[in-house]
Specification:
This protein is mainly α. It has nine helices and no strands. Vacuolar Fe(2+) uptake transporter.
Length: 265
């Protein structure tokens, strides 16, 4: 068998790649920013801001004092942060355990399969995805020479599972989730802390909390856009809108319970 790619073909590919870089319509899309804890930070941060601000909105609507806001706000923030962190840790650990167990099952199936039934399953799958039957057979026969590769391919193609990342530590994910929840969740409460020496108006403090929450949501939306390669303005506006809707619902509920349902102090 000759070379798969000749030197002449390689040269032509390099020329085509260079022409593609010069063609504005063929520019390669920007890759998203990759980080080990991106999901934990964004998810926990967004949930923390909305949860904290919604609680402040419901308390403010019932005309409670700044002390009530701070006590209930921080208590709720720490409790939810611990819950989120433990939840992330447990879900990550469970997911890794499931994948590891499933891989053991797949290894056993490959080692104890009757005839070539494991190979035939992959060949049929590739053929269903548009690969020529002869090409699919060739590819799978090559995989069959390398047990670990064949097992990983069956995990991904048949069961939709990627091999567990050995470098991933579930406890780190949980810790990052907790820290992100606390850091972002404090933003709406800062207004009540900063403005205490300057004003006794609960309305002014609540307006300050609205502004700080909007800024925090906007920054988180921009960060999410940067990570995912999305439009900054749209991502920030959409994130602020989601937080605003949740806070409005909480404020309306608090106001209703106070003034309509007659739940007075």
């Amino acid at each position: 068998m000759g070379e798969i790619v000749s030197s002449g073909a390689t040269a032509r590919l390099l020329v085509q790649a260079e022409e593609g870089r010069r063609d504005g319509d063929s520019m390669r899309p920007t890759e998203p920013w990759k980080g080990e804890f991106v999901k934990s930070i964004v998810y926990a941060g967004l949930d923390a801001i909305i949860t904290s601000f919604s609680l402040i909105s419901s308390i403010s609507a019932s005309r409670r004092s700044s002390v009530d806001v701070l006590v209930l706000g921080f208590a709720n923030l720490v409790a939810d942060g611990i819950s989120m962190g433990l939840g992330d840790f447990m879900s990550s650990s469970t997911e890794n355990d499931v994948v590891a167990k499933e891989r053991l099952v797949t290894e056993w199936d490959v080692a104890h399969s009757r005839g070539n039934e494991q190979l035939v399953e992959l060949i049929q799958l590739y053929h269903e995805h548009g690969m020529d039957i002869d090409d699919a057979t060739t590819v799978v026969n090559i995989f069959a020479k390398y047990k670990n590769i064949l097992v990983d391919e069956k995990m991904a193609a048949v069961k939709g599972m990627l091999p567990p990342d050995e470098a991933e530590k579930p406890w780190k994910n949980g810790l990052v989730t907790f820290a992100s929840f606390i850091v972002f969740g404090i933003a709406p409460l800062l207004s009540f802390i900063i403005l205490i020496p300057f004003t006794h108006s609960e309305t002014t403090k609540f307006i300050g909390a609205c502004v700080l929450s909007a800024l925090a949501l906007g920054l988180l939306g921009i960060a999410k856009a940067k990570i995912a390669g999305q439009n900054y303005a749209f991502s920030a506006a959409w994130t602020i809108l989601n937080g605003g809707l949740a806070a409005s619902a909480a404020y309306f509920l608090g106001w209703t319970l106070k003034h309509v349902a007659g739940l007075e102090d």
